[in-house]
Specification:
It is found in: Cell membrane. There is one protein chain. 41% of the residues lie in helices and 25% in strands. By secondary structure, the chain is of the alpha/beta class. The structure holds adenosine-5'-diphosphate (ADP) and magnesium ion. Magnesium ion binds next to helix 2.
């Protein structure tokens, strides 16, 4: 390989908004046939908002919001930020949580106003009215956040994310390059399907715990697939590192950026296609 052509490739990359760790990174893109896309913050903006509140009969809506908001206030998860902001807006100032525990990929738990509160995906069984509310939210592509305390589920909060305007076009471009897109998320299967359908992805791997994302990439590799992974979160870092090509969004966390081979500066997924196109072209010049 001629180093000059590779240097030209990295220079052009910078103009397109692609930061490349080292020229040798371009080599690994040649055989990539699968592109795994994280959902939240990658295909979607990750800027979420509280849309709807459902409560079980006899439950005070403000109490659901206050207890949920108080706990989520202590978490940095995009779902948590939406719940805390929405709760404060609808129910006023939030109480202080007396204890707080983060349950990765599931939610938060802790003590508020003398109750043992859980928020997220922490209840096995829901009463029929709440199960219906959760299903309704999920069918519309919104995340259902279950709120309960002292062992009983008492409310469902519907939290909406927004799909990036450029995501569907990016998926089309990736397909045109011969890559099979896969959507990967810790979120619910129904929500993931709704997002996948909106951007033109058929293959969905959902309800994956943060620490298991890396195993999904390894499994695809074991099937003989050469995998590019695109992600933004702390929970994507290990998968980005193991992938044949890791593309981190510049809008994402430092952990993801450090683990990736390439950084897409603007967080626009179409640039993932540009990156693969550029490196193939650069390599063609060399051969
Ligand atoms: P993703 O893979 O989409 O980035 P995560 O693995 O971080 O998502 O979380 C998976 C799911 O767990 C979320 O979609 C949400 O339903 C639930 N969850 C995680 N953290 C929280 C939280 N702080 N509050 C409520 N729900 C949460
Ligand atoms: Mg993410």
């Amino acid at each position: 390989a001629t180093p000059t052509a590779l240097m030209v490739g990295t220079g052009r990359g910078a103009q397109l908004g692609i930061l490349i760790k080292g020229p040798e990174v371009l080599e690994s893109t040649r055989r990539v046939d699968t592109v795994v896309l994280d959902k939240t913050g990658t295909v979607t903006t990750g800027r979420m908002s509280l849309q709807e509140v459902y409560v079980a009969e006899g439950t005070d809506e403000k109490q659901v919001l206050r207890l949920a908001g108080a706990l989520e206030h202590a978490s940095e998860h995009p779902v948590a930020r939406a719940v805390a902001a929405g709760a404060e807006e609808r129910a006023g100032a939030l109480p202080e949580a007396e204890s707080f525990e983060n349950v990765p990929g599931r939610g938060v738990r802790g003590r508020v106003e003398g109750h043992e509160v859980a928020v997220g995906r922490l209840f096995e069984e829901l009463p029929p009215e709440l199960a219906r509310a959760a299903r309704e939210a999920e069918n519309g592509g919104r995340t259902a956040v279950v709120v309960g305390w002292d062992g009983t589920a008492r409310g469902v909060l519907a939290v909406a994310d927004t799909i990036k305007e450029t995501s569907a076009e990016a998926v089309r471009e990736l397909r045109a390059l011969g890559l099979a897109p896969v959507l990967l998320t810790g979120d619910n299967r129904t929500v993931a399907r709704a997002v996948a359908e909106a951007v033109g992805i058929d293959e969905v791997i959902a309800e994956v715990l943060p620490e298991d994302k890396v195993d999904v990439v390894r499994r695809l590799q074991a099937e003989g697939r050469v995998v590019a992974m695109v992600g933004d979160g702390v929970n994507d870092a290990a998968a980005l590192a193991v992938a044949d090509l890791g593309l981190a969004l510049g809008t994402g966390t430092d952990a993801a950026i450090e683990a990736g081979d390439l950084t897409l500066v603007r967080g626009d997924l179409r640039v993932a296609a540009d990156a693969i196109r550029l490196s193939r072209r650069t390599l063609a010049t060399i051969k």
